[in-house]
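Need residues for this backbone.
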C-alpha cells in the first residue's frame, strides 16, 4: 500500500477578517469560496472558541483555508523567524499568468516583489491582508529522481556544516 499523500487537501491559517480575506482571494487570485463553516466549539479539541472556517479552491480542488477567531488575542507572527521564511507558494502554468496576477495585485495597491528567478522556479512575492506571505511561482525545474538524489546530498552536507552548499557536483544543476 502506498501511504504517500495524494495531494494537498487544504492548508489553514488564521485571518483577521473573513470578509476582507474573501475579497482578496476571490477578486485578486480568482479562487472560489467553496465552503464556510461556523461553530462555538473546535471539533478536534472541544475548546470553546467561536470561529468561522472559510475555504478557497485552486484549480486542482485543493484549498487554502482560514479561521477567523474574533474572541482570541490579535494575530501575531513568530518574532524569531524572518518574514520571508513562512509562506505559501501557489503554482501557475507560465510567466504570462504570473504577470497578469502581479498586475491585478498592483492595481489593487498590493506591493509585489519580482518576478525573481530562483533555482527551481520564477516567483513573485506579496502579503495578503492578514500578513501571510504568498508566492506565485511557475516552475523551471520539475522534480525527478536526479533532483531527489541531489537533495539528499545537499541535506547531508548542510547537516554537517550549516553553511550554503556550493561545491557539490549535482546530477541536475540548479
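Answer:
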Amino acid at each position: 500500500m502506498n501511504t504517500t499523500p495524494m495531494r494537498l487537501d487544504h492548508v489553514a491559517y488564521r485571518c483577521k477578517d473573513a470578509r476582507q480575506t474573501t475579497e482578496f482571494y476571490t477578486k485578486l487570485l480568482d479562487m472560489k469560496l467553496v465552503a464556510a463553516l461556523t461553530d462555538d466549539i473546535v471539533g478536534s479539541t472541544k475548546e470553546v472558541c467561536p470561529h468561522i472556517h472559510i475555504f478557497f479552491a485552486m484549480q486542482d480542488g485543493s484549498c487554502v483555508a482560514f479561521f477567523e477567531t474574533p474572541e482570541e488575542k490579535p494575530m501575531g507572527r513568530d518574532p524569531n523567524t524572518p518574514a520571508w521564511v513562512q509562506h505559501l507558494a501557489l503554482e501557475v502554468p507560465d510567466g504570462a499568468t504570473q504577470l497578469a496576477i502581479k498586475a491585478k495585485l498592483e492595481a489593487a495597491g498590493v506591493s509585489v516583489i519580482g518576478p525573481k528567478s530562483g533555482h527551481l522556479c520564477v516567483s513573485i512575492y506579496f502579503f495578503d491582508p492578514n500578513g501571510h506571505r504568498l508566492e506565485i511561482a511557475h516552475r523551471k525545474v520539475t522534480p525527478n529522481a536526479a533532483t531527489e538524489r541531489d537533495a539528499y546530498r545537499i541535506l547531508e552536507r548542510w547537516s554537517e556544516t550549516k553553511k550554503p552548499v556550493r561545491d557539490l557536483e549535482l546530477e541536475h544543476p540548479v
